[in-house]
């Protein structure tokens, strides 16, 4: 089965559905025309006690085998929901296969992980907890620690009505992660009808984003996160880390030739504060990342002005968390 047969037709169907939803959202907001992107929707009701419990666990190294790492070790909520490293280092000094993606707006992704391994936060969280190079825990270890903790045993009993079990822990973490929405970006305000939210240059960047075809994959309210795409459609991207098989993409899961170099399309929300970029963090400059994507995915060489204009639009996708605009982690040069 070739790449187009495996992924192309489903892409068109998915894009059509997302476009329909976006058109409805744009129509309601007063923005003229058919819009492939939609405002970020408010998070639905989440049990506040479970959110609070999940947030406490998210920052607690009790979930790692050596009590050294927590979820925020790779997903810093005070910055962009990630860390400014190409690929983080796990237990015993082994570098992770992929760059740590932002955790913000993860509840709006249908596919999770760079290879789109999972469609459920609970399933992905379990994998992270048990992975020997991530948290390296076991279920007996986790449950014993939490039941022996006066604080956690009391919280789980009060919130779930019984001693902590596997499902409760996964539910608490996933509920907190679903709360990590970053609304009120300038672009969201623009789509909602505030024509003063974007400058003329930023609006022009949005036009280029649509006209050049970026929105064919980065679409919907999360501006990506739901589809698969081959990295290097028109030309091979720059060579990544030769010591990692991460460039193989979904092939490392499926063994199918058509899946070589295929990845989940990431969300572009908050992209200006989540460097470095791509599955292996090979580039720290957003303009450089835009130029690579234009050449490899669109078969287009951008002018300096077009690059600058597209970057200006992408910067309008930075939202707020707890009422504060997101900021990038300390800059470290990677390219």
TrEMBL record:
GO cellular component: periplasmic space
Source organism per UniProt: Rhizobium lusitanum
Keyword Cytoplasm attached: no
InterPro entries in the cross-refs: Cyt_c-like_dom, Cyt_c-like_dom_sf, Cytochrome_c_Peroxidase/MauG, Di-haem_cyt_c_peroxidsae, MauG/Cytc_peroxidase
Top-rank taxon, per record: Bacteria
Binding site for heme c 2: 214, 217-218, 293
Designated name of the protein: C-type cytochrome
Main subcellular location of this protein, as a coarse class: periplasm
Localisation: Periplasm
Modification(s) after translation: Binds 2 heme groups per subunit.
GO molecular function terms noted in the UniProt entry: cytochrome-c peroxidase activity; electron transfer activity; heme binding; metal ion binding
Textual note on the cofactor: Binds 2 heme groups.
Keyword set includes Amino-acid biosynthesis: no
Alphabetical UniProt keywords: Heme, Iron, Metal-binding, Oxidoreductase, Periplasm, Signal
Cofactor: heme
Residue span(s) of domain Cytochrome c: 200-318
PANTHER family in alphabetical order: CYTOCHROME C PEROXIDASE-RELATED
Taxon lineage: Bacteria, Pseudomonadati, Pseudomonadota, Alphaproteobacteria, Hyphomicrobiales
Annotated heme c 1 binding sites: 71, 74-75
